[in-house]
Amino acid sequence: MGNVKVSNVSLRFTKDNEISTVALDDVSLDVNDGEFVCFIGPSGCGKTSLLRIISGLNMPDEGEVHLDNQLIKDPGPELGMVFQEYSLFPWKTVVENVIFGPRMGGVKKEDALKDAEKYLELVGLQQFRNSYPYELSGGMKQRVAIARALANEPSVLLMDEPFGALDAQTRNILQQELLDIWQKKNITIIFVTHSVDEAVFLADRIVLMSARPGKIKEIIDVNLPRPHERTSPEANMLRERILKNLINLQTNDL
Q1: Residue 218 and residue 237: Cα distance in Å, rounded?
Q2: How far is Cα 67 from Cα 111, in angstroms, rounded to an integer?
Q3: What is the DSSP string of 12-38?
Q4: Interval 35-94: pLDDT, tens
């Protein structure tokens, strides 16, 4: 199961014992098992902060996050995290990076390697299993990062602008590959992006966040048949609507 419940989450940063920034203000959201949800909003609206709270990497000042009715207090294997900057161990090979999490969790090396082959096949990198990160392209590194996150068999995959540093062609390819993985694994994905095109192509629902302090301004259902056609009239209308809302949010923040 991968039901995530965010309840009245607020996050503040302090300086000299005084509140300097309110990053998130009373955010509540339910994400259903197997759903693909994208967060989008102006820079600095707290998207990444919220994702890190859901992952257990950071704690909110107020509110709670539950996964399948269990309070999230710290990171765990049921919550996979993929960052924009790949976060691979440069001194480990591809397969060593993938098995790292399961091995730390006590899985026998033989079993971890067997599972790693399955995930490397899923992301199309079997032939690069013994390569090092410096030998890989950006897109290949991100495939390794996804395989490493999946190796822990998470029920929720959290992704913080994972394709933001890639060229447009590679980004489009990995978006489609991610959708294929999502459908095969039937897991929940919560995905942060600055790209309206990416959100419309990937998501079941798009969470539009306001400028700081971050609040949920609107939740938009992407009522398009899958696979979403990037250039369909319906997708174009939805992109235009979201772009107008983003411009309004940024204008009001000036």
Answers
A1: 16
A2: 27
A3: EEEETTEEEEEEEEEEEEEE-TT-EEE
A4: 999 999 988 888 999 999 999 999 999 999 999 999 999 998 899 999 888 789 999 999
